[in-house]
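Re: the pair you flagged

First of the two:
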Amino acid sequence: MMQGPGSSIRMKNEQDDEAGQEMKLLAEKDFREKRLEDFDDVFADIINGLLFHGEKRVLENDLESGMPRSAYKNEKNFERGINL
């Protein structure tokens, strides 16, 4: 089957659309993950699992909420400690 000159453009646009949708899904997943980490019990479980092989050394009652901070990097610079 022969493809016309516009067919490669359509295929590229479809690929871009799929990539854009995948990025949106990943961003939503990342947002949900960060929201879960806001819960003291979930955060304590993550730390205990990753650092202490599941041993309960960090308890949810030992945790305090802090000021959310973020880092932003663009092509020209890197800014640390941006308060949200």
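Second of the two:
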Amino acid sequence: MDGGPRDDDDYISKMLDRIEVEPNSTVLDIGCGPGTLTIPLAKKVGSVTGLDISAEMLKRVSYRLRGAEVYCRRMLLGFVPSRSCFHNIRQRAQ
């Protein structure tokens, strides 16, 4: 990736091509954000649960789900420690 703007449709199709799922699969989308992969995955599998540390992101994906004609099992506000998500953690004032 060159740091330039991302073509979301191309990104989604490439990711979905790489993810091996069956129609009866259950998927946990950790760091689901606004549902970029959550919603397309929900169209391919039996059940999707989205997890994100940001309540605002969960609001966005919930809004997008209304018109998507898919079912997501649940959207969870939570945190899974990972080096790749430390940029979301605010530093406490000393």
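The first strand starts at residue 26 and ends at 30.

-B.
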